[in-house]
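Let's practice the habit of predicting before peeking. Look at the sequence and jot down your guess about where helices and strands might fall. Then scroll down.
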Amino acid sequence: IIFTSLALMNIVTGVFVESALQRGREDKDTYMINHLRDLFGSMDMNRNGQISWCELEEHLDDPKLITFFKDVDIDISEARGLFELLDRDASGTIDAD
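Done guessing? Here is the structure:
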């Protein structure tokens, strides 16, 4: 009976921990998305809803942008490559969507 009780408590604890970890990941994702939207808004100099490479390049020394790149494990020197990947239609701009 004691062994069964311990096994059941272990399962309940595992489910609780997994749920807490999942919620933490979701919270981090939500934070990162909101932070990215704020960064996007601050980089969009002409307020047209799009960022050109020139607009992004002007903000490469912004501590908030540098921190964001570190948080997503991308070196700031790779910003041009990331911009080109996000510019799906090769228009020279990226939008928040």
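How did you do? Helices lie at 2-43, 53-58, 63-71, 79-86.
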